[in-house]
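Archive maintenance. Older records in this collection stored only the sequence; we are now back-filling the structure field for every entry so that each record is complete. The fields below show one back-filled record exactly as it appears after the update. Entries are processed alphabetically, and Post-GPI attachment to proteins factor 3 is next in the queue.

ARCHIVE ENTRY
Title: Post-GPI attachment to proteins factor 3
Organism field: Prolemur simus
Length field: 299
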Amino acid sequence: MAGRAARLVLLAGAAAVASGSQGDREPVYRDCVLQCEERNCSGGALKHFRSRQPIYMSLAGWTCPDDCKYECMWVTVGLYLQEGHKVPQFHGKWPFSRFLFFQEPASAMASFLNGLASLVMLCRYRTSVPASSPMYHTCVAFAWKMDYFCASTVILHSVYLCCVRTVGLQRPAVASAFRALLLLMLTAHVSYLSLIRFDYGYNLAANVAIGLVNMLWWLAWCLWNQRRLPHVRKCVAVVLLLQGLSLLELLDFPPLFWVLDAHAIWHISTIPVHVLFFSFLEDDSLYLLKESEAKFKLD
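Back-filled structure field:
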């Protein structure tokens, strides 16, 4: 144990020259994983591991080597804390306390609640806004078709909604052409990340660029119509809140109680923002419906 602690101290003070994270470069971690796999992940020991492994773990794809890495991660974390060092990352991630088969239980729960909030508000929107509203099919059908590639899709969909609301209701052909352009951009983006390589830097830069376009476009339209349409204040609040909350993603710290990190906090914080945005969509769609009915009566 003393020898391992000594190597740990030397590693903590040395500059990193190899790829990976500090924790998985630690000799104590590597030795632990190697010995664990030799002891548990072959022959009769592997059969014993599989026989006692919960069915939900095997269905989720957790293997014997995965379990060794998880257990050895905590052995290494314990040594770091014992020697007074900061908690290291492993394979690019902070150590999280596993719950069932979830590696990041707080983020998983927050993602579920985000999806649930969006689903509830979408159902409410479809109930309260008649299908004859000019914005109805834009908000419902296209969202389902495009909601496949996480953040990039959501941002592009928001840009499309903004185009329809500001230009497309008067010029549908422009909105259709813009939709085709956005779909082409999304296809190219997904193809590059899926087939060539997943470049985190490029993905972040692309999302930030589209996010800025989305933010400026919505804010410009809201400020232009704030006196005529009081409900656009909700949209302004949504845009500003999302930009402010996105700063949470820049924070980087070990998970609180080995469960709650900055990403999970961001997920939880955005739940009421989704509710507010759907409330804006509902108000705006009902306004457009009344406006269109008034024009029909005049005609």
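Update note: Residues 105-298 form one domain. The longest helix spans residues 262-298.
Entry marked complete.
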